[in-house]
Amino acid sequence: MEYGLIGETLGHSMSPEIHAKFADYKYELHPLKKEELEAFMTKKDFKGINVTIPYKRDVIPYLDVLDKKAEEIGAVNTIVNRDGKLYGYNTDFDGFSAMLSYNGVDVCGKKVLVLGNGGVAKPILLYLKLHKAKDVIIVKYKAEEGVITYEEAAKEHSDTDIIINATPVGMFPKTDATPIDISLYPSLSAVIDIIANPSETKLVKEAKKRGINAFGGIFMLVGQAKTACEYFTGKSIEDKEIVPVYEYITECTNKRNSIIY
Q: Which residues of 92-108 are buried (b: 16+ CB within 10 A; e: fewer)?
């Protein structure tokens, strides 16, 4: 394999279609069981790979060089093999940044609720820190250190400006679910859902009905792939190139979900 995606379950990943829009290399899906990861990483039989759940942390010990942002996030989703040395990056940060820029969202000085604190949330939290969000509150169903519950969020932070869903609640096929009642937050200027399938979750649809700037995660998915492609090829791609790929993948996702499985 020259280029591709590794993960435990890759299912309906559209990464090959996305990468095909940015470059002409062959990009393959390569599911790996946990017991197969070590042999794959030590063999280094690839030029560049993307990494998804559950291996974004597990691949780090096999790397020779870890990018600063990836180190701060504590997760890697892009690896480049340069003359036998493995370089690790996190392009989810770049994808999130591109998505907010495209949708006109500025987090500086804003109060932000981040739903969930798993691996998906890590690059988002770093972005919020570097772009000077005023207050960042992490919300989960159970309280723990540095985290509050949904009940506490509604009671103490109803003046929230932005809500970001970094949980899988609302993901296909369970599209009738929503992680939070946005009617309890009358000051919202933006609702962001990292979920890419469906293209618009119930949370996003409810926010749009209220006139709130709201969008799903497809732009982030395509944006992070664009940056990964740049690492793979060493060639720069203009951000404007994300838009037609985003529109194409959105259309494909909507068509796919119209089929009854």
A: bbbbbbbbbebeebebe
User: Out of 56, 110, 111, 122, which one is annotated catalytic?
Assistant: 56
Is 240 labeled as catalytic in the residue annotation? Answer: no
Which token pair is 3? Answer: 């280029």
Model pLDDT for residues 193-234, shown as the tens digit of each residue: 999 999 999 999 999 999 999 999 999 999 999 999 999 999
Q: What values do phi and psi take at 217, rounded to 5?
A: -95, 10
CA 102/CA 226 separation, integer angstroms: 14
Query: Are the C-beta atoms of 114 and 127 separated by less than 8 Å?
Result: no
Say if pTM beats, i.e. exceeds, 0.85. yes
Q: Which helix (H) or strand (E) holds 15?
A: helix 15-22
DSSP letter for each residue of 130-157: HTTBSEEEEEESS-BTTBEEHHHHHHH-
- Look up the CATH architecture of domain 3-90+219-257: 3-Layer(aba) Sandwich (3.40)
pLDDT over 90 at 255, yes or no: no
Domain 94-217 has CATH 3.40.50.2300: no
